[in-house]
Structures are given as C-alpha cells and as structure tokens.
Amino acid sequence: MNDSTLTVRVARRTLAAKDIVVLDLEPAGTERLPMFEAGAHIDLHLPGGLVRQYSLCSDPMESGLYRIGILRDPNSRGGSVTVHEQLLPGSEITISTPRNLFPLAAGGGKSYLFGGGIGITPMIAMAYSLHHAKLAFELHYCGRSPEHMAFLDELGAAPFADKVFTHCDQVEPPAPANIATLLGGAADDSHVYVCGPKGFMDWVMDAARTMGFSQERIHHEYFQAEMELGGTSFEVVAAASGKEVAVGPNESIAQALTRIGIRVQMSCEQGVCGTCMCTVLEGIPEHRDSYQTDEEKAENDQIAVCCSRSLTPRLILDI
C-alpha cells in the first residue's frame, strides 16, 4: 500500500437502525491508525473497484479505531449495497487516510450542529471535539422516526447528552425542528454546521441566512449530490498530450477522456469529493459539482470532470 492508504479489518458490525449499519474498523496489521479531526472522511476501496466516501463518526480522541455509519440507499450505485452485503466482521478492506473538507471553524462562539438522517455522522465527531475543548454547542439530530435513526443510544449516554436534541417528523405528535426558534438567540459569533440530504441542508441553510448568519458562518458537506445529467456536445483538449475528444450529450468529460486513453482519478463520481478536479486553461466550465464554493466556481479555473460540462464549444484542460 502507498502512504495514503491503509488496510483495516471490520472489528465490529452493528445494524444500528433500519437500513443503517455501523462498522468499527481497526488496523489489520501492526500499523497505527492516524489521528483525525472532526469532519474528516475516509475512502473505502470496495470490491469491484468502487470507491466511496464515509464520514468518521467516532470520538477523534479515541485511538485504535475508525467508526462509520452507512445507509443502504435504494438508489445506490453499488457502494452502500456492497458494504451492507459484503463487509462482515473480520473482512479486510483498503481505506484512505482521513481527509477533512468539513472542519470546525477556529475560534468563534457557539456551534449549532444539524444532522439529517445519516448526515448525523460527522456531527457526532464534531460534538466530541467541541465537548473535549469545552466549547458551547448544540447537536440537533433530525429524522423520520427513531427506528430510522442510528446512534441514539450512544448519544443518550454521551458526556454531552444534555446538548443533544432529536426531532422526528413521523411520530405522534410530529416534532420537526424549528430552525428559526433554535437559532433565534444565536450570537453574532456563532456558527451553523449541517449535513444530510440536499433538501434538508438547503432548508437549514436558508433558515440560517434568514436569521442573519453570513455565509462564512454556515458550514456544510454534501454526502450525495442530485446530479443534473446531459447537455450539449462540446470538445475537450488534454493539453499534456494534445489529444482531443468530443464529449457527447449524455456522457461525462471523464468518460470521454477514458475513451481516448486518458484516465482521471475519481472517487464519488457525483461532484462531491473533489478528487477529479482539473485545471481549466481555456474555455468556460458549466459547474455542476457541490465541491467548490460559489466564489471558486466564479473563477472558472477548475472543473469537476465527473459531472460538469462546458458553456463554450471547447475546453482545454491541464491534463
């Protein structure tokens, strides 16, 4: 293995809620697992060549294991189904070292953590970190019903259990979160963190903006993108080789490049992780990723070739 990958073993597997499995991963050999910061994720290199990202939800201060929670997605492209069906206790698997695209902000005031469904996973690690640092926070776990919500027992027994609040839509009486009320007394130096389905995240972020939170105080991570597919054909030139290829209406730039022997490293294939980002030398991208900020997209110098397209007839990429 290279320096960025590790071999781990499934030490414990728990069906923690309806269609959610929680895996504790330990080193398969004598190597130690690197420490990680709250918000980090790992890549799982699954059978069949699939690579998928999952947030670490264990206490960052707890060495010796990585914990991840995976929802069996009915619209899975193979990743979550493979995890549920093949990663059993004792199974060995290759993972990446942790990467963090969703860190806690340095300093600042109170943190409001919102996890929707399986989006609770990075929030648990954040809660542990904030607790250890003796910083003010609230953790709001939103779901359909308790049977669809993993980690309830762990959170109920956590040393910060008094800062955990659950909100369920499909209970009697329904008890959904009221974001305006929850953020009503927030100070000017407080921050909002949110992860979950896109609709849930948009709802929380829109409410936070309405309550006066600036974009710099709203932090989010998409774990699944709602991708827009198809579009007009255009040409892509790979500058390193001079090779040129037509990208069809229903294929990605990455797929077109593969046809001419140029393989791009990819992971999520949904414009979420940033693995496939390429530098744009000429042309204007049509950004469809969820990885870049609006400011980064406006610069038009990077493109996620797994999902984005072109607004100009021709793109020249530094690849």
Descriptive account of the structure:
The chain is of the alpha/beta class and 319 residues long. It has three domains: 5-96, Beta Barrel (Elongation Factor Tu (Ef-tu), domain 3); 111-222, Rossmann fold, CATH 3.40.50; 234-317, Beta-grasp domain (Ubiquitin-like (UB roll)). It contains seven helices and 18 strands. The protein has helices spanning 79-86, 120-132, 152-157, 179-182, 198-210, 253-259, 294-299, and strands at residues 5-17, 20-27, 41-45, 51-55, 66-71, 92-96, 111-116, 137-143, 164-168, 191-196, 218-222, 234-238, 243-247, 277-282, 285-286, 302-304, 309-310, 314-317. The strands form four sheets. The protein has a six-stranded antiparallel beta sheet, with helices on one face. It has a five-stranded parallel beta sheet with strand order 9-8-7-10-11, sandwiched between helices. A hairpin with a 5-residue loop joins strand 3 and strand 4 (51-55). The two termini are 25 Å apart. The mean pLDDT is 91.
The biggest sheet amounts to: 6 strands, antiparallel
**How large, in whole angstroms, is the Cα Rg?**
21 Å
- Enter the CATH topology name of the largest domain: Rossmann fold
Structural class by helix and strand composition: alpha/beta
- The CATH architecture classification of the largest domain is 3-Layer(aba) Sandwich
Shape: globular
Helical coverage, percent range: 10-25%
Number of helices: 7
CATH superfamily of the largest domain, please? Nucleotide-binding domain of ferredoxin-NADP reductase (FNR) module
Structure summary, number of beta strands: 18
Sequence of strands across the biggest β-sheet:
4-3-6-1-2-5
